[in-house]
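[retry 2/3] Phage Gp37/Gp68 family protein: previous attempt timed out, resubmitting with same input.
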Amino acid sequence: MAQSNIEWTELTWNPVTGCKKISPGCKFCYAEVMSRRLKAMGVEKYKDGFNIRLHPNELNTPFTWRKSKIVFVNSMSDLFHPDIPVEFIKAVFGVMNNTPQHIYQVLTKRSERLLELSGELNWTDNIWMGVSVENEKYTKRIDHLSQTGAKTKFLSIEPLIGPVKTLNLDKIDWVIVGGESGHKARPVRKAWIDFVKAECERKKVAFFFKQWGKPKFNVNPDDPTIEAEHPQHAKGGCELDGKVYREMPGKAA
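[retry 2/3] Phage Gp37/Gp68 family protein: success.
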């Protein structure tokens, strides 16, 4: 467990570490870079670098938290990676089922496997399930997510590296949008963000604009949230038309 700097969560919990790249959004994966750094520092949990590794000892961790938390599950992996045994996925779900005081946010790019296993999993109300969508080509993940038994469904449209032209939000509760950050970050366009925002408004879906990614991508160089000292600072700033959008689904609003 670790405190998180991710604006839409409080803690990260990693019962699995490691992953493999499967789509363009993975190109500059922060988790891969961090895993290498932690391995070089001699952190035992990351001794295998970015290879898939299960951590059964982590399954007890949520039971030790004294206060209710909002928890991003597997920030350093993908719970629905094909190399993760179904029984271990069920064990992670069992922990989440038995700690209803916490909200768990699970995010995957492997939406096919998510849908395949959905019927075998216990979707208690405290489990929010999301898929990553980086451009129009990967909107099919939304259709897979919509067919699962998750009570709260969300999209992480981050990094947004191309336009999303069709967005079916009929069964979606929350949408996060963000530009890519890092040294070689690919640019985000305001028109792409505006389209997603307009669709969320039309469907009355909670909209969370996380960041522009880099100041040079931000259409407003005077955005005060660019400054690190600003209480709502995010990478590259996070104002959109002079406003910060950090809406959450109804159960956590």
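[retry 2/3] Phage Gp37/Gp68 family protein: The CA atoms of residues 59 and 91 lie 8 Å apart.
[retry 2/3] clearing retry counter.
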